[in-house]
Specification:
Blueprint: H1 5-36, H2 41-68, H3 77-93, H4 103-131, H5 137-165, H6 169-188, H7 206-215, H8 220-248, H9 254-282, H10 284-304, H11 307-310, H12 315-341, H13 347-375, H14 383-399
Helix pairs in contact: 1-4, 1-5, 1-6, 1-8, 2-4, 2-13, 3-4, 3-6, 4-13, 5-6, 5-9, 5-12, 8-9, 8-12, 8-13, 8-14, 9-10, 9-12, 10-12, 10-14
């Protein structure tokens, strides 16, 4: 039995489109709010948090609903073909609403776009374990994240060039690529038949699965979800505020700050596939622990690095590039660990729990960062203190995880 690389790469087009859109969102929506609408950092963090709470509430339930859905085109496809185009339309409209008198309209449009994204993201990710045997899921997730990383590079580098011409251009390009990517998934991927013998109605839903995790004697699933929560708190503090950090603390333009993140995205892409194979050789938990240590230490280094060195144009991109390796070691192998703990009839439900943990972290990460930035007198560099602390917590949780390695 071998990993079907071609099929996995085709599936990766869905994540490619989603990653482009989220990268553009993280790079420029905070700039719209903090610079164009002149909102305080704490208010920017609150707005991002409110929308993330919506995702937090929607995604896990959608995963459970997807597990129970039966249509002629499958369990996942109805969500993808319905909500991906709606998300693309909403995202394309956003930059046209960046006017001081249209803040309320902008926020409504942003919220509706985020809702549409949340409605199909879990089903598109759940397709990976659907079509991939356990022993190949880290490698498959590496290939899919390779596609997502390519999307992020396009967003950070190409988006920066487009943003300089017109702030609307990267949003329009991301919307188009999202539709194309999800269209390829619908066209070329066929969902496997449901081989489970139990009735659909008998399958536990999200709440029952979460209760089972909390009550289980082996706390590996719970500890893994806590670790995921912790490292995403740190990562979201960085990703949501790095562009503003560049503008406000380093005094560079938004496009240049976003371009710096392309170095992290580039090494993430390069190491996405090797990270899966490294985990297959040395174990997913050990690989993730190394990644956590790399990322946490490098963020701490940035915190104490003088601004003059950060703006030299060499050192900060190098640090971000190495950080991308650490993030690949973590991110490529965490979802496969979650779904290999899951019963096979609940893959999307556990995928939803993965996003429950990561999205709840995305709620708190920007909120904590925004509040601390304002409390410390607009010290945007505090994000590089939050991240190491969060990574240290994740490291401790992962030390006690005992399940989630690949099945032979």
């Amino acid at each position: 039995m071998k990993l079907n690389i071609g099929k996995t790469l085709l599936l990766g087009f869905g994540f490619f489109g989603v990653s482009i859109l989220w990268a553009i969102h993280d790079s420029y929506v905070p700039v719209f709010l903090g610079k164009d609408f002149a909102l305080d950092a704490s208010l920017v963090g609150t707005i991002l948090t409110v929308n993330t709470i919506i995702v937090f509430l929607i995604q896990p339930s959608i995963g459970s609903l997807s597990d129970r859905t039966r249509t002629q085109v499958g369990r996942r496809m109805p969500f993808i073909v319905t909500f991906a185009p709606l998300a693309a339309i909403g995202f394309a409209i956003l930059p046209m609403l960046v006017q001081p008198t249209l803040l309320g309209v902008f926020l409504v449009a942003l919220t509706l776009t985020i809702i549409a994204l949340a409605m199909f993201r879990t089903p598109v990710i759940a397709l990976m374990p659907d079509i991939t045997p356990s022993q190949f899921r880290s490698q498959a997730n590496g290939l899919i994240n390779l596609m997502g990383g390519i999307g992020a590079i396009i967003a950070f580098a190409g988006g920066a060039a487009l943003f300089k011409r017109d702030p609307a251009y990267p949003f329009w390009a991301a919307s188009l690529l999202l539709v194309l990517g999800c269209g390829i998934v619908f066209w070329r991927i066929r969902e496997p038949p449901d081989a489970a013998t139990s009735a659909v109605e008998a399958r536990p839903g999200l709440a029952a699965s979460l209760r089972a995790i909390l009550a289980a004697r082996d706390k590996s699933a719970l500890l893994l979800l806590l670790a995921i929560f912790a490292w995403f708190v740190g990562y979201n503090a960085i990703s949501k505020f790095f562009t503003l950090y560049g503008v406000m603390a380093l005094h560079i333009d938004a496009a240049s700050a976003a371009t710096m993140l392309a170095f992290l995205a580039l090494t993430f892409v390069i190491f996405a596939v090797p990270s899966g194979y490294i985990a297959a050789r040395f174990g997913r938990r050990h690989t993730i622990l190394v990644g956590i240590a790399i990322l946490g230490l490098l963020m701490a280094v940035i915190r104490v690095l003088p601004v003059s060195l950060q703006t030299s144009g060499v050192l900060l991109p190098i640090i971000l590039a190495v950080a991308g390796i650490g993030w690949a070691l973590i991110n490529i192998n965490s979802l496969p660990m979650v779904v290999d703990i899951a019963p096979q009839t609940e893959l999307a439900t556990y995928t939803g729990l993965y996003y429950f943990a990561s999205t709840s972290a995305a709620v708190l990460g920007p909120l904590i960062a925004g509040l601390l930035i304002d409390a410390l007198g607009k010290d945007y560099g505090v994000i590089f203190l939050i991240a190491p602390v969060a990574m240290a917590c994740a490291f401790v949780f992962m030390l006690f995880v005992r399940r989630g390695e690949r099945a032979e």
